[in-house]
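Good day; I would like, with your permission, to put a structural problem before you. A protein sequence and the structure tokens that stand for its backbone fold form the material at issue. The record follows directly beneath this note:
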Amino acid sequence: QVQLVESGGGLVQPGGSLRLSCAASETIFRINIMGWYRQTPGEQRELVAAVSSGSDTNYADSVKGRFTISRDNAKNTIYLQMNSLKPEDTAVYYCNAAHRGIEYWGKGTLVTVSS
């Protein structure tokens, strides 16, 4: 079982930046897809960005050009660099790993974009 721990959330002003990290409990080298999702109260969880084991990436239209996902297999960690943050980016951000037909989730980290 893969355990995921997110960090890096917090309060930031509009236009600011944050970098989220997700540390996995085991090697991520063979984990096919890892990604970031976000959720606001009353809304469904939505995909923000994903990265494959081959480093192919996929982004939600709302974050393209502002967010960058990356993975460091040596550190068993993925990252989400978030720039030009907007109030509508406020959400709990969850790390996800899809491995051997099973999905794993972290507990989430809160990102609040507000002046």
Notes: The longest strand covers residues 91-99. The mean pLDDT is 95.
